[in-house]
Design brief:
By secondary structure, this protein is of the alpha/beta class. 33% of the residues lie in helices and 22% in strands. The protein binds 5'-O-[(S)-ethoxy(hydroxy)phosphoryl]adenosine.
Length: 653
């Protein structure tokens, strides 16, 4: 978050109460009801969550709601048997929703596919049988590198159905990133596709996978999904014995595949996310708690009603797509819109065209998208009838009040509440958010904790403060269960504050007099670029692989559209501090190849030295001051204080 933004939210006094019309129809429409429920969820979580969990289907009831005996390795609904796919699909077919739309898919070129719950059940069972035929069973890891086509959701659900652990890799990641994730998770199968449309071009995903898995001994098979099931194939190489076209295998399997009855604490998925060291972490989520929490948060935060058409614009490759495109909304039996392509293709009104076409009523997107729309101009929004919308949501980074107001007025026509939802890959579901029928909103604030969430702002000693570190003091059902293969890192990252008592999310925040939370941003070395987490250490380790680079320091800086951008200070070997554009291009290409295009820095500065303490630690704080044009903080601890002046001159030249 930029300094200007912190200042503007500090002065923010506007408050928007839900209209009485919205409140009268909302699932929770009275403040007293919210308070009673919240109190109960905190005072008696066992009873609260036990009751909610009963709204889902369990093959066998749980014995204990929460087991804290191995804190911080919490267990929820122990002894219970459940299947997330059953709750997303079969349950609705059995309960009269067979013919209701489940997924309304829109391709970038304008082609559409609609799957009812009955059709989704059929597709998911077939997919699950194909997985089984390829030797996948309970506990096996399956990497999924697919574009935003219906088969992405289907593949995820098919894994859940048979108890395989999905590890979805966002389709913007490079071959090298695929390799890291496939090797770490020991994936036996990789699911990919022949292509997808993005801004009018075809992304060749299969080629990237082929390159990525060259040295992955665990991979036995590759399943290749055709973007156009009944139409043109995009060209790609198929390796005999290893690679299979999905549609060919699917035509040979039965359309019936029963759900595996899983233990509540069986692994549902791994999803890799960046932390403050170079290696991404495989965040672990298990079936029972994750199901219950995503079910309930979707229901209440998005106030889902029977006739809603719900659209979350996130890619399933990120946690938002997992929890609020697939599992949360489908468990609630709603109609889910899924879109393949870019928001500005063929024109900057593509999202609004889709809202109008499919009569979307609940719309969930990210601040970076909202800021891009603001820049593209009001006329693109004004061209469309958006009267179907009744509720808007935002996620991924702090939203600046100006963007909030624009969203509220231009997209929401001044009538739609906005839910600013704060959460993380690790939390599995939304922890801070308004409830749209009761919580008056303030532009830029994620307002208050959800049911069962005991949030506070603490200092390093654990004292409550008005500003400081965000802490969560009680476990909630979808809390991460660990980091795959690295329990020590799990403890060190999230539980090394406050004597291991509370969960540490890594965000700084403040709380106002109404008890509203205002997230300021990360306090670790993670930068949020367009809502995507990138560890600065990840980029630094890419740069030092170049033979000419001795050392580098990467920082986050405010960016008008992306929220934050990356700036790299690169120290070259020898005396060549000048560098060259050619070298800059080489380094950018390395970032593309090792992480992905989205991680490219805004600026690469070659320098002769970096500001370091006498013990050799790079002072990133000073680099940030230089990059943002701030007055320099304390420089007295520097080994060579003149370094910052040189860098400052160089940065602005
Ligand atoms: C940031 C995305 C302010 C935060 C769901 C968090 C937010 C990180 C918000 C997690 C919000 C997410 N307001 N900041 N509404 N939502 N963040 O794991 O810094 O990709 O720690 O999960 O995004 O990013 P992740």
């Amino acid at each position: 978050m930029s300094v200007e933004n912190i200042e503007s939210v500090m002065q923010e006094t506007r408050k928007f109460a839900p209209s009485s019309e919205f409140a009268s129809k909302a699932r929770i429409g009275r403040w007293e009801d919210y308070e009673t429920m919240y109190r109960r969820s905190i005072d008696d979580p066992g009873a609260f969550w036990g009751e909610i969990a009963q709204e889902l289907h369990w093959f066998q009831p749980w014995k204990q709601v929460l087991d804290e005996s191995e804190k911080p390795f919490f267990k929820w609904f122990t002894g219970g048997k459940i299947n997330a796919c059953y709750n997303c699909v079969d349950r609705h077919v059995a309960n009269g929703k067979a013919d209701q739309e489940a997924i309304i898919w829109e391709g970038e070129p304008g082609d559409t596919r609609t799957l009812t719950y009955a059709q989704l059940l059929d597709e998911v069972q077939r997919f699950a049988n194909v997985l089984k035929q390829l030797g996948i069973g309970k506990g096996d890891t399956v990497a999924i590198y697919l574009p935003m086509i219906p088969e992405l959701a289907i593949a995820v659900l098919a894994c859940a159905r048979i108890g395989a652990v999905h590890s979805v890799i966002f389709a913007g990641f490079s071959a090298e990133s695929i390799k890291d994730r496939v090797q770490d998770g020991q994936s036996k199968l990789v699911i990919t596709g022949d292509g997808a449309w993005r801004r009018g071009n075809v992304l060749k995903l299969k080629d990237v996978v082929d390159q990525g898995i060259k040295d992955c001994a665990s991979v036995e098979n590759v399943l290749n999904v055709a973007r156009n099931p009944d139409g043109e194939r995009f060209e790609c190489a198929m390796q005999d014995g290893r690679d299979h076209w999905y549609h060919e295998l699917a035509s040979q399997v039965s359309a019936e595949c029963p759900c595996e009855e899983l233990d509540s604490e069986d692994l549902l998925f791994l999803l890799y996310t960046s932390g403050s060291t170079g290696k991404p972490k495989g965040i672990m989520h298990t079936v029972g708690g994750y199901s219950v929490y995503t079910y309930l948060t979707t229901r209440y935060v998005f106030d889902l009603q029977e006739d809603d058409v719900y659209w979350c614009t996130a890619d399933v490759g990120w946690i938002t797509g997992h929890s609020y495109l697939v599992y949360g909304p489908l468990q609630n039996g709603t109609r889910v819109v899924m879109y393949e392509g870019a928001p500005n293709h063929p024109q900057p009104d593509r999202f609004w065209e889709i809202v109008e076409k499919h009569k979307v009523s609940v719309f969930y997107t990210a601040p970076t998208a909202i800021r891009a729309f603001m820049k593209w101009g009001d006329e693109w929004v004004e061209k469309h009838d958006l009267s179907s919308l009744r509720l808007l949501g935002t996620v991924g980074e702090p939203i600046n009040p100006e963007a909030w107001m624009w969203y509220h007025e231009k997209v929401g026509g001044g009538r739609c509440p906005i839910v600013d939802t704060w959460w993380q890959t690790e939390t599995g579901g939304i922890l801070l958010s308004p409830l749209p029928g009761v919580t008056p909103t303030k532009p830029g604030s994620a307002t208050r904790p959800f049911f069962g969430v005991d949030a506070a702002i603490l200092d390093a000693e654990g004292n409550e403060q008005k500003a400081g570190l965000l802490a969560i003091r009680k476990p909630w059902p979808s809390i991460l269960r660990g980091i795959w293969g690295d329990p020590e890192r799990f403890k060190n990252t999230y539980w090394n504050h406050w004597n291991g008592q509370y969960y540490f999310p890594g965000d700084g925040a403040r709380v106002d007099d109404d008890g509203y939370f205002w997230i300021v941003g990360r306090v670790d070395d993670v930068v949020n670029v367009s809502g995507h987490r990138i560890g600065t250490a990840e980029l630094e380790s890419v740069f030092v692989e170049h033979p000419n680079v001795a050392e580098s320091a990467v920082i986050g800086v405010p960016h008008d559209i992306k929220g934050q951008g990356l700036v790299a200070f690169v120290l070259l070997r020898g005396t060549d501090a000048e560098g060259s554009d050619a070298l800059r291009q080489e380094l950018n290409k390395m970032v593309e190849e090792k992480i992905g295009k989205f991680a490219r820095p805004e600026k690469i500065i070659f320098s002769a030295d970096l500001p370091k303490t006498r013990s050799g630690k790079i002072m990133r704080r000073l680099l940030r001051d230089i990059a943002t044009g701030q007055a320099l903080g304390n420089v007295t601890t520097l080994a060579d204080p003149s370094v910052v002046d040189k860098l400052k001159a160089q940065y602005s030249s």
